[in-house]
Design goal:
Largest sheet: 3 strands, antiparallel
CATH class of the largest domain: Mainly Alpha
CATH superfamily of the largest domain: Cytochrome-c3 Hydrogenase, chain B
Distance between the termini: 43 Å
Strand content: 5-15%
Oligomer: single chain
CATH topology of the largest domain: Cytochrome-c3 Hydrogenase, chain B
Amino acid sequence: MREKTTTLYLGPQHPGITGNMMVKLQVAGDTIAKATTEVGYLHRGFEKLMERRNWLQSFTIVCRICVPEPDPNEENFSRAVEEIEGRIIPERAKWLRVLTLELGRIASYLLWYGGQNGSAGLYTVGQWSVGDRNYILDLFEELTGGRVYHMYIWPGGVRRDMPEGFRDKVLSTMDYLEKRLDDYDKLMFDNAIFQKRAQGVGIINKEKAIEWGVVGPPLRACGIASDVRKDDPYEIYDQLDFEIGLEHGSDVWARALVRRKEIRESIKIVRQVMDKIPEGEFYNKIPNPMKWKIPAGEAYVKTESARGEFGYYVVSDGTDKPRRVHVKGPAYVHGVTLLEDMLVGANLADVSFIMNSLGTCPPEIER
């Protein structure tokens, strides 16, 4: 006799979902029999929109592809345009780009702390981490004028230099966050509830991880040392000292530990940037944006976002608009292929918990 199943919809308007997406679940009792990811409930179609806007107008679109961490999108698009055009950016601009990328990584992980623990009913962690994330957003507001969408990294360098006194504020914030991480350890990692919910849950098959295209913290939690910043250094990462966070459990617990390690490494990177950043120009001025044409050519560039390897393929046909822009991010694999496979056989209570551990941005899927 065939077991009866019930259809449940998780999302798109649900606090346990990672953004405006939905997972259609076939449930037998409280066990998942089938899961289907459905996206498109948020802004979408960025790649085609960019084909109808000039090069600088397109730069204002890319940050929407992942709201919690827009900076890798800006860096990828700008670096691809610069590579096609052959434009050299000032050395100081490279250091400022890395500063924003690492601040964005910390902010993204703090937001993840809240989502991951909220899925286990540990709401205090989220209240703390979102509040602490605001200190990073304060820095972004002072540096770029925006708290969430920064539109700071653009072709030719960055949009503005550090304001007076900014270095001291950055270092003070890093000191605060580093001490604060000890409190998170006590509240989260030493918490028996979180340990029981995370250990042995959402295991990724290590042998299949690379075949499936798993990247970022989920891959490093399988014991595989893969990080674009080390494997294919860009900007000035080859001049910085930092370690790749590794774990071997391949489960939610291991992915949490990897992110915990990486926050500390990002704090270390930010301090190095503040100590070593050279003086000089921060922007190689582009022509009139309404008349700016990029020579025909193509480029593929990639960064290491908080969710993993994040790439842009950009093609120019010599006009004032991109001929083609293709975004290759981790969210498609993590939020569709991997998630749908991992949820089968999982308990209903663990759906949001597993989903948050993978890290997805729905607009990056429906791009």
